[in-house]
# Entry
Amino acid sequence: AGRGFRKPRLGGCQRPDGLKEIIVSVENPLTRPFEGTVSVAGGASKTLAIDSCGKSELRVPWPKALDFYAVNEMKLPVRLESGGRVYDFERSFTVLPVRRVGESFDWKDVPAVPISVIRNSWVNKLESPAWKGKDDFWPTVRIAWNEECLHMRFEVKDDRFFCEFNNPLGATCWYCNDAIQVMFDNFGDGPSKALHGIFGIDSNDSEYDLIPTNATQAIVYRRGVPDHQLTGGVQEGGTGGGIKGNAVDPSIHCDFKWDEKAKMRTYTVSFTAHDLRPMRLVEGAAPGVTFKVYDNDGDIERKVHYGLSHPEKQVAREAGDIDRAPHEYMTLLFVK
# Structure
């Protein structure tokens, strides 16, 4: 018993290589080699041989053309054959392609992308009521990039602006107001690490909180930061290189406005290449990104909108909340 063929337990992940191809990585965690064929997205079968604990990379065309400034849901069916048996599995992910802009540009030329996954949160041990529609709470984001900066503008339809700072823990907890959290998987390696059972943030991930302090101003709080050796070197006495976390960063400006008549919150922020280290602001780079947009209407009601890699998943089972789950982030693809 047990000597016959078993379904190959190979794992796979993917990463974009520009607009033309996807690189699909297939890994063999077994103690025996794998020999057979593989077909991706209905393409022709190719011979596949992977040593024990080895991997192979395949280049395949995108299964469909990418829409710019839109969350493209992608599915890559994979078929493995070996020993007369067939094993099918599917890789699913989302890609948000954004175009390069010049030093000056008009936000009107950058389309808005909805942040559309909704999840109620908890305040004072009371379950918040259901989302009432786009007039209650509806966020969008516009994203543009060049080699110097990553620009973002969030526009949030909201029935009530909430801004209160009575938490004794200070800025680290002010995100509970009508704030926005932006999370980056700077190397875009969350999916490949999840393949090995490694979930959660790691040494290259980072997080920024955009926190209004009144109806016309906001601060940027840098929460999680990458390992200091990825952001400027070993710190010496607190004065050396490296980006410091858990602190307000006055060098990053967030232009904020609450429009009471239009019931609209607007946040505009530019992260420099220095701020985003070790992310690369170059054509073809594909970091992971997600957002948490808060709607706090006081003690009774609070909701959060997310930007996830799989819209049907509101939270990652293995790692808890989305900011702890970079394998669920969208892929942000920089193109010209």
The mean pLDDT is 82. The first helix runs from residue 190 to 194. The CA atoms of residues 231 and 277 lie 5 Å apart.
